[in-house]
Specification:
By secondary structure, the chain is an alpha/beta fold. It contains eleven helices and 17 strands. Strands 3, 4, 5, 8, 9, 16 and 17 form a seven-stranded mixed β-sheet that branches. It has a six-stranded parallel β-sheet with strand order 12-11-10-13-14-15. Strands 1-2 form a two-stranded antiparallel ribbon.
Length: 351
């Protein structure tokens, strides 16, 4: 079967309407009618081949929320009519140590299969994402959504931005009594502030935009630091248990490692176009500090994150767009002209 979608035929071409193939549901498959799809910076990087390796035609989208319309005869966890989500992965080897531990994002067998631009036996030979009317996915990579119906559009970014920030916050035991920094107040950063606040931490937001100071406090930050104000920054030296750096542009990491307590960790989740300058070794060895990285989260942890956010009333701050506005949204996203995440109303595909 074919379904309406939006995608690009080349890196230098705009996204345009197209018909794409979707397989009939197999025994363990869940067929989902997509209601909303969040717009991630990774979508832009991939469709414009800024990271290289993009397979065309490219249909992005890995922040998917919709309703189950069919299930295979071996599916046990979902039924027709369920509200569900699909995030950044639709497959992995399920055999390696990481997969057995529920950390499919670190699969060392086949590597995880991305929701788009991942190798697959389905035509056209690579996965096609959520800028489409429908998706068919193995039930092991489908998630229950328990938020109210009127929040579903704002839930979509949780499938990437939410889990990308929740996973490191959980892994490094963020909670009451911990002082936590969040660098950057964008699509990722605004979710990190909300989640860390709900976890009970003392949250400090770092921004280069003085205009975002009040916004950060409304999101849940207890303090806001202008990272261009050296005196303001240095007054917090040696005080942070954990800092989550969400900025996707190359910058000086020493500014933030210097703020960590002994045994503190700076974790990077933003992927810059060019490498960061190498951090000073002295800043690390004299406090046993660490610089680490984190990639999304496993399926079980993503479900945990969705349930946590439903319990605490957490969703993304979004701007809804029609699919026909996607190229304009990409341009605005590059200018950081969105608070804080675009979400596509997939019903506009029929237009």
């Amino acid at each position: 079967m074919t379904v309406p979608a939006y995608g690009a035929h080349a890196a230098d071409k705009p996204l345009e309407p197209m018909q794409i193939p979707r397989r009939e549901p197999g025994p363990s498959d869940v067929q989902i009618e997509i209601a909303y799809c969040g717009v991630c910076h990774s979508d832009l990087h991939t469709v414009r081949s800024e990271w290289g390796g993009t397979l065309f035609p490219c249909v992005p989208g890995h922040e998917i929320v919709g309703q189950v319309s069919a299930v295979g005869d071996q599916v046990t966890r979902f039924k027709v009519g369920d509200t569900v989500g699909v995030g950044c992965m639709v497959g992995s080897c399920q055999q390696c140590a990481s997969c057995r531990d529920g950390e499919e994002q670190y699969c060392t067998g086949t590597g995880f299969i991305g929701t788009y631009n991942g190798a697959t036996e389905d035509a056209p030979g690579h996965t096609l994402g959520g800028y489409s009317q429908r998706i068919v996915t193995d039930e092991n990579f489908v998630l229950h959504i328990r938020h109210p119906q009127d929040q579903l559009a704002a839930v979509a970014p949780l499938l990437c931005a939410g889990i990308t920030t929740y996973s490191p916050l959980r892994h490094w035991n963020v909670g009451p009594g911990k002082k936590v920094g969040v660098v950057g107040i964008g699509g990722l950063g605004h979710m990190a502030i909300k989640i860390a606040h709900a976890m009970g931490a003392h949250v400090v937001a770092f921004t280069t935009s003085e205009s975002k100071r009040e916004d950060a406090k409304k999101l849940g930050a207890d303090e806001v630091i202008n990272s261009r104000n050296s005196e303001e920054v240095e007054s917090h030296a040696d005080t942070f248990d954990f800092i989550l750096d969400t900025v996707a542009a190359s910058h000086d990491l020493d500014t933030f490692t210097n703020l960590l307590k002994r045994d503190g960790t700076l974790t990077l989740v933003g992927v810059p176009e060019h490498p960061h300058p190498s951090p000073s070794v002295f800043n690390l060895i004299f406090r046993r500090r660490a610089v680490a990285g984190s990639l999304i989260g496993g399926i079980a942890e993503t479900q945990e994150m969705l349930d946590f956010c439903a319990e605490h009333g957490i969703v993304a701050d979004i701007e809804m767009i029609r699919i026909q506005e996607i190229d304009e949204a990409y341009d605005r996203m590059q200018r950081s002209d969105v608070k804080y995440r675009f979400v596509i109303d997939n019903s506009t595909l029929s237009a």
